[in-house]
Design a protein that fits this description.
Blueprint lengths: L1 H20 L8 H17 L6 H23 L8 H26 L8 H28 L3 H23 L1 H28 L4 H30 L6 H27 L4
Length: 271
């Protein structure tokens, strides 16, 4: 499982986050965008080193790049009230890599942050590249290309669900299950809106296929997430973490995040 999770995290660092940052039209993000590749490469290399000072130092370089995204998030000017759902999604996306960086530094140093197992910390790194960054950013983007109540709801529930899942790590499986349900509702709404846009708004067949495929993946991958969280909360049979990484993780990373980012880039969408 460790090799697979590392590969997924590398996809998040080197492909998904840079592609997502190019969807933000604000020139204020330019410094963070230019510095990101340095931190991403350092973070990717740290994953393959033995735990210890060298791996921790490289993970810290990644954390500096993530901190630049947080600094940009703080510097963003206030938005009109009608744009608050989109802004909540964008801010969640910008902070997501910093949460991942905290878990990465702890895991690479062998420190059980908040008493979490090192494997859980490794999965947290992956989670906050795809649910924390990609899903939140796409949810915010939908408020521009498919404005309406459904898009606003998705832009609010994806960040809320991500936060509840994080809180569930500290408070118990019931909160984590609630977070999985809220996040799934938001992600399914994202999938429906992306599917509708792919069928009616995409300029060419390849863009439509990329966006439609990313939407279809969510229907299955988030059902897996709910089944796992439900099993953890109730003791019912549910997939193992290794099986979830190989199915839910791969589907969300490649099917949803990568295809989605490429599709939105081809569509010329900006946030």
């Amino acid at each position: 499982m460790r090799v697979l999770v590392n590969l997924l995290v590398i996809v998040g660092m080197l492909v998904v986050v840079p592609a997502g940052l190019r969807l933000l039209a604000d020139p204020g993000i330019e410094l963070a965008r230019r510095c990101w590749p340095v931190g991403a490469v350092a973070g990717a290399v740290s994953l393959w080193l033995p735990r210890g000072p060298a791996a921790t130092a490289l993970a810290t370089v990644y954390a500096v790049a993530a901190a630049l995204l947080c600094a940009y998030a703080v510097s963003r000017p206030p938005r009109p009230r009608r744009e608050w759902p989109a802004e909540a999604a964008v801010l969640t996306a910008l902070v997501g890599p910093a949460v991942a960086a905290s878990a990465l530094i702890a895991e690479r140093s062998g420190y059980r942050l908040f008493s979490f197992d090192l494997d859980v910390l490794a999965l947290t790194v992956a989670h906050f590249h795809f649910a924390g960054f990609a899903a939140a950013l796409i949810a915010g983007l939908l408020t521009r290309v498919a404005p309406g109540r459904a898009a606003d709801l998705a832009a609010l529930t994806v960040p809320a669900g991500t936060l509840l899942v994080l809180l569930g790590y500290f408070t118990g499986e019931a909160v984590e299950l609630a977070g999985a349900l809220v996040l799934t509702a938001g992600m399914w709404t994202v999938g429906w809106l992306v599917w509708r846009y792919a069928r009616t708004g995409a300029a060419d067949r390849l863009t439509a296929a990329l966006l439609g495929g990313s939407a279809a993946v969510l229907a299955v991958s988030m059902a897996l997430a709910v089944s796992w969280a439900l099993g953890e909360a109730t003791g019912l049979p549910h997939p193992s973490l290794g099986w979830m990484a190989a199915t839910h993780g791969v589907a969300n990373a490649l099917g949803f995040a990568v295809c989605g980012m490429v599709g939105w880039r081809r569509a010329g969408a900006r946030l």
